[in-house]
Amino acid sequence: MTETATATVGPRDLAADDHRYLWHPFTQAEEWDSHDPLIVERAEGFHLVDTDGRRYLDGVSSIWCNVHGHGHPRITAAMKEQLDRVSHSTMLGLSHVPAIDLARRLVEITPGPLTRVFYSDSGSTAVEVALRTAFQYWRQRGQQQRNRFVTLAEAYHGDTMGSVSLGFSEPFHRGYGAITFEVFKFNPPWMCEPINEGSGEQAVVAGIETPALEAAGAESLAQLEKLLAEKGESVAAVVIEPLVQGAAGIWPQPPSFVRGVRELCDRYGTLMVCDEVATGFGRTGSMFAVEQAGVCPDIMCLAKGLTAGYLPLAVTLATEQVFDAFRGRYSDYKALFHGHTYGGNPLGCATALANLDVFDEENTVETGAARGRLMGELLAEHVAPLAHTAALRRVGTMAAFEILKDPDSGLRFATDERRAYRAVLEARKRGVIIRPLGDTMVLMPPPALPETLMRELVTATAESVAAATAG
Fold it and tell me: pLDDT tens across 129-143, in order?
């Protein structure tokens, strides 16, 4: 037997193989290699189970996408049924039943007048489709000068280079200026006065319609109006994450802000694009965040909760007016020459259809709204009083707070102290998975999480943060 063959005999050292072969996203290798990784083997309901059989409550919805828990029988049955038919068939020059049925369902449940569905495979690619669609739309309408985009400061729209250009959120995209394009920026409400005046104070934002946030939203809209008055004739679209900026730190906007963006887009004749990759499918207390503002964008991006976190699938929806700009003879070359190998994957579409059935059958949106309110009460009770936490904010079941050395002054811990990461490790001791953004702790449990598990999640988080900041 050769030496190579001998090395493969015996039990696998998964931790060693992980450290030897894997390159983890958003992860500093030296820190990762300093401890044994948590290796997930299976999932049961709202828990992940590691290779040692220990159970962990999934407090971040497997990065903001799980909705009903893992292994929901209705969804897994639909996946198995579709596997017996066809697991993949291209949308280039062909169609298939699940893609047609899902497109119809999505048009029925999203705000009118969104009528056209373009498939891709992730939130980033859904935004890329929106970007190219908006750019080409104006070119084909004879307004080639509309080739610029407006986005919020600290926005995050994904990791493909077009979506990086739109978002350019620190620290994720630092140093990429040379290979991205410039966009016009305006400050979101959380970066405006009077919100910014109290950034170092201990404050609980239990909802999204507080007077301070409304005033900050008005200031943000004033900045956008000034920008559009000066640059509007060159703007193809204003792109926002409605109601909540996710990766910026779960910072809320009042519904009046989203309405105001829609009104300004109409006034200055530009398109409105809403990135609902993180906010869609019950996360904010409604099926889609724009519903709370009573508006419809010209283009909307969906992913994550689209399949309840079971398979990669994304869609970009557009109005018929936008779609009509791409009609013409072949020689006009007006088609959207864009697509992905797995865009509209039949297995993913069948999974998404089953997910929507579960939403209807189990009243998931209403349950998520109720769980969000409970979450707010628990955060106020257990997290707000801690010595090193500040600026609690919550929209639906999306919540975050700052871990600070001195909440009164806003002074942060030194970056390499990694206080939030220490809290993550403390939470694992308590059987809970959480994940921060720097020293901003984010909680985003599935909207269908039972009340008892919501209480467990918040209390374990509070205990973990207290332990990580002691002394």
Answer: 999 999 999 999 999
